[in-house]
Amino acid sequence: MKINNSLSSKIKGISFILIIMVIYVHSYNILTGAGKSIFLVTDNTANIAIFLQNIFAQGMFRSAVPMFFAISGYLFFKNYRSIRDYSKKIRNRFKTIAIPFIFWSTLVILIYYIAQATIFTNTHFTSAYIRDLGVYGFIEAVFLNPYNYPLWFLRDLMLVVLFAPIVYFGVKKITAIWFISTIALWLLNIGAGTKLFFYKSEAILFFSVGAYFAIYGQKYLNQRMSQNTLLYLAIIYILVLLAKTYMMMLIDTNLLFVISIMQKIIIILGIFLLWNISDYTWISKVVLTNYTFLFYVFHEPLLMLIKKVCFYFLGISGISSIVIYIISPLVTLTFLFFLGILMKSYFPKFTFIIMGGRV
Q1: Please, what is the Cα angle at 89 between 85 and 341, to 5 degrees?
Q2: Do residues 351 and 359 touch, judged by C-beta distance below 8 A?
Q3: What's this protein's family per the entry (predicted)?
Q4: Which of 39, 297, 298, 335 is exposed most, by the fewest CB atoms within 10 A?
């Protein structure tokens, strides 16, 4: 059964919103690359900048990646019935995920190489010199720890897709045990980063959630929640978000686990709210959805460069931090939008390949 046009438009519209959220996560600018505050003196405007960016970049917008995994799981397991379907979907994902991943990861390394070779930019890059990487270092920079760091999502997605039959078995045959286990690992931060071999707790859990809706919960995807219920949930969401952000400002290590749990509540509520609020908004009618993937794969290192240039001219202050946080993604998106138009106009076939058919 194919996805109906209404649901397809909804998913495309939400995916566009999610990538905007991801870019604003990466626009976070109150810490240096070494993890230290950019502010020599923390005055009122600096505190406002920290609070606002923690609300959005470290709070509200953190629902984006888990929701992307859920959507990916749903799309993968839609019409999934046997190992034959798995083989077909793997071949398809090679075109839609692996080829774009390799191209855009390698392209950014090339950009870094050229930038590091120039007199004016080599001191502005903290990454190792590309020319000194060696064979293993180059492979690591492309596949394992991409210099184009947002591509870690595609890297993890490829891993999850390879183990899709295990996910399918867990969701379909041992549903309760599977979700109790994956939720527990996620809540306890086990499998975050590289703590548990290849296991990625967030990726596995939300990919499984998408699989569940593809297998069992199709009817729920087309149901509308009442606006009153959404309002109550939104109030709870905002209260938890504000409380969690305030606790972050306290910088108390004893609160880290509580903050972590609150963030996960924010993620779940955020996904739930965005999915349902989209039924009452224009999200499904966004006209830029054809550029969503380009915005994702190439917003870095452009966004980083724009932030650096802005701070160079505006200086470091609470006000400049807020302004740069807001405008840097807008400049990035504008540039990529016109780049996308040029690519589709002059190199349509090549663009089709490197975008995984998303044009």
Answers
A1: 150
A2: yes
A3: Belongs to the acyltransferase 3 family.
A4: 335
The answer, yes or no, to whether the previous bond of 301 is cis (omega within 30 of 0) is yes
pTM over cut 0.90: yes
Map residue 222 onto helix, strand or coil.
Answer: coil
| Predicted confidence (pLDDT) per residue in 75-121, tens digit | 999 989 888 899 999 999 999 999 999 999 999 999 999 888 875 55
Quick one: which of 280, 273, 277, 334 has its CA closest to 303? Answer: 334
Which residues, other chains included, contact 238 with Cβ-Cβ below 8 Å and sequence gap of 6+? Answer: none
Structure tokens at 260: 């972590």
Q: Is the pLDDT of residue 168 over 90?
A: yes
Side-chain-side CA neighbours of 159 within 13 Å: the count stands at: 16
